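Reviewer 2 asked us to include a model.

Predict the structure of this chain.
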Amino acid sequence: MKLQKPSSKLQGSSKKPGPSAVIGLEGAKGAGVTYAVGTSGASVFEDAPLEDGSPRHPFDLEERTARFGEAVVRFTRRIPRDPTNNRLIDQVVGCGTSIGANYCEANEGVSKKDFRNTIGRCVKEAKETKFFLRMIAASEPGLADEARPLNREAKELHLIMAAIFRKSS
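Predicted model (C-alpha cells):
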C-alpha cells in the first residue's frame, strides 16, 4: 500500500474550527515576525530580517505587495461612508490585498501550471485594483491625489505580474 505524502495545503472542511483549532502566537517564538506600533496607533505586521541577518530585499515582491495592501487599507479608511462608497471600498480592499495573497500562494505552487494559474489571478487583481481606485477618485474627487500613487503602484504591480505570467509559459 502506497501512502500519500502530506501536502502543504490545508484540507478544507465544512465544519467551523473550534476554539482548539485557533493557534496563538504564544508557541511561535522565533517565528520571524514582530509587531510594531505605527504612528497611527494601529499594529503593523512586519517580517524580521532573514536567517542570515540581512534585511529583506527591497525588490521582494511578497513584501512589496503586502505594503501595497496595507496602503490600500489605510487609504480606504479616509473615504467617507455611503452606499456607493461602501461597495467601492469593499471591492478595492478585496482586490488590492489579494494581489499579495495570490502572489504568496503562487510561490508555494505545486506545479508550473498551478504557479501560472495563480500568477494569472495576480494580474487580474492588479488590473481590477486600478479600476476601483479610478472609481473611488470619480466618486470622491477630493481623494484623487491620494489615490494617484496607489494607482501608479497597482499599474507597476500589474506590469510585473504580467511579465512573470508571460515568462512562465
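Helices lie at 61-76, 83-107, 112-139, 144-167. The domain at 59-167 is CATH 1.20.1440.60 (de novo design (two linked rop proteins)). We have added this to the supplementary material.
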